[in-house]
Amino acid sequence: MALSLAIFSCKSENKENEQQITDTEQITQPKTEKPADKKEIQDIDFSEYSKLAPIELKEAKSKDVFKKYGTEFSGNCYACDLAIFKLNKKNFDIVNVCDDNDFQRFEDFKYEKSSNILKITTSETTFIFTKVENEPIYQLTFEGKKPDFKNKRISQFYTPETLIEKFEEHDCGDFQG
């Protein structure tokens, strides 16, 4: 009788252990990447990144962000060769500043936002937009292959297009080129 109790209790313990393992596996299974991706999508306000326009450093010592940065004259007004970035949940586009029909589209990309950094990863390149001022001014750096697109030169700094009018130097003025 003592022998059967020992066997019964061993089987009972094994069933409890099996049940605990199964319960643990069920708890950890929902923690897959898909829910995390949904969370990331909700955490990113795409309106802030929907259309990023190129700017350049004008007066490095200025405390006023709108005097410190401004429009790059040659790329916006003369050569028309700068890139604008457009981002939404489905597409990541690199567009010529003067021609919306001249663009490079990435439909297969991933993104990740943490504090002041947005990373957009394509098959060859990770675009890293780091917020460098209190206003939404982003410095762009790369991991992987630095992109080289015809008529879409990459600037070092970007800001939402909606802010361009606030910069002291924000247009081409009377340039007739």
Descriptive overview:
The chain is α+β, with helices and mostly antiparallel strands. It has one domain (39-166). The chain has helices spanning 2-28, 33-43, 65-68, 73-78; strands at 51-57, 69-70, 83-87, 92-96, 99-106, 110-114, 117-121, 125-131, 138-144, 157-160. Strands 1, 2, 3, 4, 5, 6, 7, 8, 9 and 10 form a 10-stranded antiparallel sheet that branches. The longest helix has 27 residues, at 2-28. The protein starts with a helix and ends in a 17-residue tail after the last strand.
Top keywords for this entry?
10 strands, disordered N terminus, single chain, 177 residues, alpha+beta, ten-stranded antiparallel β-sheet
Number of strands: 10
Rg computed from alpha carbons, rounded to a whole number of angstroms: 26 Å
Total domains: 1
The largest sheet, given as strand count, sense and whether it forms a barrel, is: 10 strands, antiparallel
* Average residue pLDDT: 77
Shape: globular
